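Minutes, project check-in

Agenda point 3 was the complex the collaborators sent over. CS summarized: two entities, 295 residues total, and the question is how they sit relative to each other. Sequences were read into the notes so everyone works from the same version.
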Amino acid sequence: MSRFMRGGEDKAVNKDGRSKIRALVVDDSMVNRTIHHKLLQNLGIENQVVGNGKEAVDAHSSGNYFDLILMDMDMPVMNGIEATRRLRAMGVRSLIAGVTTRSLEQEKQEFMEAGLDDYQEKPLTAAKLVSIIHKINQSSSTPR
Amino acid sequence: MDNVIQLQKKLVDYKTSLFNEGILDDQFTQLQQLQDESNPDFVVEVVSLFFKDSERLFDELTKTLDQQNIDFNRLDAHVHQLKGSSSSIGAQRVQRVCILFRNYCEGRNIEECLKCLQQLKREYYFVKNKLETLFKLEKQIMEAGGTIPVQ
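CS then shared the predicted structure for the full assembly.
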């Protein structure tokens, strides 16, 4: 049974009508962090933003859990591929969606192989985000 | 009231022309749809971030191209960032020049990279001017007691 019900158009809520999805936005661009934060917020998803892969890994070190991670690929300090590998190696089971402007199959393949569940080309839109969120419902009962 | 109606029409016509001329694309509409009562200045805030970020990147690009031995990977990384942010706000023509610029970075073509930087600056200041005009029109409507028409 899905943990989430549709509570109004494009809203992800639990059976009590309160949003329980938590997300982490990982992107070195402040423009993109601001847009992705608002996109998630408008869908009723509580979210935090960080500026690179290392900050994403550190965000998990104190026991934080996120249902969804939106991971950019090209970032300083630690890129999205390395961050995804590290998070999976740490046992993080969140749905990780790569969000990048890279479009070559080879680049996409490398990112997917690092441990992504989904991949979306930027710019991110509400429709793309809704399709990512549907995967949270689908994967919630699938063991990793 | 007539004044508000006139301003609203002027805004709609102006915005339509920006889309028809390919200066803005659908991503700008997506941004506008994110704006709501809890964040009524969202579009202006995001676009202001884009302006600040772009001008920082132009400084970086100029510095990188001024070097004796140009680091094309660094150059490409900066253009990639600008491509990302311009596509996120719907600045289509800026994004297209970034794509061209990246091709010349890959080809390590200094002359074409320098030309691209100039073209990029022209397109950027052009869209900046257009967006500032758009925001001024919106502000005029609000100050006259009107609402921004939804397209």
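Noted in discussion: Chain B has one domain: 2-32+41-134.
Follow-up: revisit at the next meeting once the mutant set is ready.
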